[in-house]
Structures are given as C-alpha cells and as structure tokens.
Amino acid sequence: MLFVPLCLIAATGQRLSTIEVQHVRPSRMLQRMREFYFSNSSPWPFRGVDDRKGVLYVAGSDHVVDETRTIVREFDVAPRKVSVTATIDSAIDKLQYEVTGKINNGQHWTTGDAEVGVGLTFTPRVNPDNTVTLVIDYQLGDGKPERTVCRLKSKTPLEVFKSSEPAPKDVLPIEPKITVEAHVLDQ
C-alpha cells in the first residue's frame, strides 16, 4: 500500500524521511502539532505515523524535513514530574497522616480515606517559573464535590480548607484540616 505514495514522492523530487519520537505517542503529538503549527494554507509534510515504532514519516525537501524536525523537537518533550503531598488531620477522628504522589504534569492523582470521609483528586500544572498551579477536587463525606485552584511555590504548604464552625455537641464534624504542598521534581 505504501508503494503508490512512495512512487509519487519520488516523482516529485521529494524525499521521504522518518523522524523518531522519544517521549510521547507520535499520533497524539501530530494532532497537537496540526492545531498549533500547520494552518490549512501551509503544506502538511507528514505522510504517516507509526506509534509502535515511535516514528513520523515526512516528505519534502531537505529544508522542509529539517524545519519539521525542529518543530517535532518542541513537542517531543518528556512530561515534568511533580510531587504532591497532602496532610490530613482530623482531630475528631484522632487521625493524622500524610500521603505523597509523584505524577506527571497534567495527570490526575486521586486519594482519600473512608474513615475520615474525604476524597481528593489533584491535577498539577507546572508554570514557567517552576511554581505549580494545583487543581484540587475534593469531597467531604456525603457532601457535594468541590473544586479549588491554587498556585504553590515549591515546598510551601497551603491549608486548603478546614472546619470553620464548631460542631454541635451531638454531631461530629467530618471536615478535617487538609494541607497540601507541591514541587517540581526535575528542577
């Protein structure tokens, strides 16, 4: 099946080259590249992709192939790793513990504790100044899911929320004190 396109490429004087992709799935990278770099008016140099081999197939002059290789390097970047630590302190339940997750920039990490009644999902985004914007989705007991977004300096703890009202004598509050910190691992 590749014979016809190869014949057409050879007849037009273009060369077919492969570009290796090291850190991401080539087909997904190709989708992002189409959105950012190649408009409908500019020629699309890609002639195929092989996710299993981790390569893109490019056709064009030496100049086009070199330019495309430069653009591919901008997108072929290993995700930065972020360490997120949450400390959950429930005076009512007489529990305090700390959990740490090491995840890629932009991924989700979910943790929780049924006894204390808390569920947490963290999604970090590394900023150019190496601060971390952290999206925190949480649910306390049977309450509705909530979301907060904060920007954290490296290893600077931030109290996300805490019980703000004293509990009535016959009801135990389910809102523990939760503190988070995050830092980029590859600094």
How large is the radius of gyration? Answer: 25 Å
Lateral strand order in the biggest sheet: 5-4-11-10
| Apparent shape | elongated
Q: Biggest sheet, in brief?
A: 4 strands, antiparallel
Overall number of strands:
11
How many H/I helical runs?
3
What order do the helices and strands follow? HEHEEHEEEEEEEE
Low-pLDDT stretches:
1-11, 162-168, 170-174
Protein structure class:
alpha+beta
Q: Helicity range of the residues?
A: 10-25%
Please state roughly what percent of the residues sit in beta strands, choosing from under 5%, 5-15%, 15-25%, 25-35%, 35-45% or over 45%.
Answer: 35-45%
Tell me the span between the first and last alpha carbons: 47 Å
Give average pLDDT, whole number.
Answer: 80
